[in-house]
Amino acid sequence: MDVHESILECIGNTPMVRINRIAKGVDANIMVKCEFLNPSGSMKDRMALKMIESAEKEGKLKEGGVVTESSTGNTATALSFVSAAKGYKSVMHMPKGWIPEDKRKMIKAYGAEVIEVDPGKEILDELEGKSVHGGVVEIIPRIKALELEENNENVWWARQAMNPDNVLAHKETTGKEIVEQTDGKIDAFVCAVGTGGTLLGVSEALLEANPDVKIYAVEPSSSSLFQMAPEIKFYMEKYGVPGVAGLLVNKIEEAGFIEKAFLVKDEDAISMAHRLCEEEGLFCGMSAGANVHVCMEIAKELGPGKNIVTILADNRYRYLVSEHFTT
Asked: How far apart are CA 289 and CA 104, in angstroms?
């Protein structure tokens, strides 16, 4: 019988699809990796599985264990999903007032306990009127995740923003799949930056296969992680959160392979996300819109016959109530 033993076996091996109608009139080929087809609806499933299985091998997560994390969205869902499939409990710390109700319900549906944490008056006052990267408002929730781990021997904190398995998951699976699906014929890779794990991992795999691949980063114009990294580092050091030196965005900057970083406005990301649904039938989220928006710009520069690959990170269900481009 062709039957999977677990839903976890369905993570990855997502299809690559060519963009047709939207790219009409563009000479370069734009191809998208449909990561929104992963079981919980985003590419974060890959990272969640890799991190949890590594924790199991290292003896940090055992039978009856609890997985915890601080997250503003997809990672919390993915970790809760993988935890449920493996029989673990999960506790997700989220900044109060920053997560739409539909996202909280999705996480709770996997049996997770959702704890809303006050991001802290000092931080909120500092950020008043700004739209910032989730890494800032997650600082106090990260401390709560750390405290839960320190005070309970059966709790394991995933530490997604600094966990090397975040990168390895995408180097060993996502990047490898892209190389195989394109026969290594890739001229450019475009990727929105969240923690930086996808961009770093996939880029390493692509550059090993073809050192001439150009790598482009994509961020919301209102909340650039590269721009916010010093501020995130300041607050994390101030509040005593460990592992700051391991922030993945720092590793990306150190690697020096980014050809160019694009800042995309909300309205451009949202508009393209709608077009992907309406014109291509791709039920994807807002970062996908931002990625393809940038692909269209790059296609004009690279010219005929060039192959551009990007990621459609998550599905549209997460944005039916609140449309916004965040990473």
From this structure: 23
Predicted TM-score (pTM) of the model is 0.90
The identity of residue 135, as a single letter, is G
Q: Do domains 7-37+164-319 and 44-157 have the same CATH topology?
A: yes
Pick 7-37+164-319's CATH classification: 1.20.1250.20, 3.40.50.1100, 1.10.287.630, 3.40.50.10310. 3.40.50.1100
User: Which of 45, 23, 42 has its CA nearest to residue 33?
Assistant: 42
Q: What is the 3-state secondary structure (H, E, C) of 151-176?
A: HCCCEEECCCCCCHHHHHHHHHHHHH
- Write down the catalytic residue from 44, 144, 171, 306: 44
Written as one letter, the residue type at 260 is K
8 A C-beta contact, residue 303 and residue 321: no
Q: Is 44 a catalytic residue?
A: yes
Look up the CATH architecture of domain 44-157.
3-Layer(aba) Sandwich (3.40)
pLDDT in tens, 8-61: 999 999 999 999 999 998 999 999 999 999 999 999 999 999 999 999 999 999
Distance (Å) of CA 209 to CA 199, 205, 292, 298: 15, 6, 23, 21
What is the radius of gyration, based on Cα positions, of the chain? Answer: 19
